[in-house]
Amino acid sequence: MIDMDFKGLEDKFIGTLLGTAIGDTLGVPFEGQIREQIIRYFDDFDEFIDKNHNIFRTYSDDTQLTIHTVKAIIRAGGIEEEILIDEFIKWLNDPPIGAGFGCLSSIRKLSNGIPWKNAASNSGGNGTAMRISPIGLFYSNNIEQLKKAASLNSNITHSHPAAEAGARVVAASIAFLLYKDPNKGFSINE
């Protein structure tokens, strides 16, 4: 771990959360399309942006649930099951933007009092990895707690092991990169 002042760490937290929202917003118009379809839009990137800047109007449920994960962490001083579930249920009032069926149906079941172990879909979708950045940030200095929190965050809506693995890998990657100097780079062997 490198020595980092609070401002440097704060900037990385803010950058990670803003990057999540910006990446989500840039990706929304292409969600569900295959690579070959997306590539066709970008023969001339500048021309594409000039002609299509209005398609980047909103973020999706990925950013919404990231925000609710942040709120849960702030409320509990970490990840606590009941508070995280409460925040996910509050998301239903946002209203959800572009939510996947598995996630939406799971959280609706939670709002009707069904325990999360029975409410979660068996989806291996990437939604859990998309909302996990706050856990990678908050638990960056405790990998065991990070794994537990990422697993809980995932399993509440997506009980498939692939979804849980994706959430844990993304959270751990964020934690790893948080303490790296972007001017120095890093080795894949680290």
Automatic annotation (TrEMBL):
The keyword Hydrolase applies. Keywords: Hydrolase. It comes from marine sediment metagenome. One of its GO terms (molecular function) is hydrolase activity. Gene3D superfamilies: ADP-ribosylation/Crystallin J1. The lineage of its organism: unclassified sequences, metagenomes, ecological metagenomes. This is ADP-ribosylglycohydrolase. PANTHER family: ADP-RIBOSYLGLYCOHYDROLASE, ADP-RIBOSYLHYDROLASE ARH3. Belongs to the ADP-ribosylglycohydrolase family. Pfam families: ADP_ribosyl_GH (PF03747). InterPro entries: ADP-ribosylglycohydrolase, Ribosyl_crysJ1, Ribosyl_crysJ1_sf.
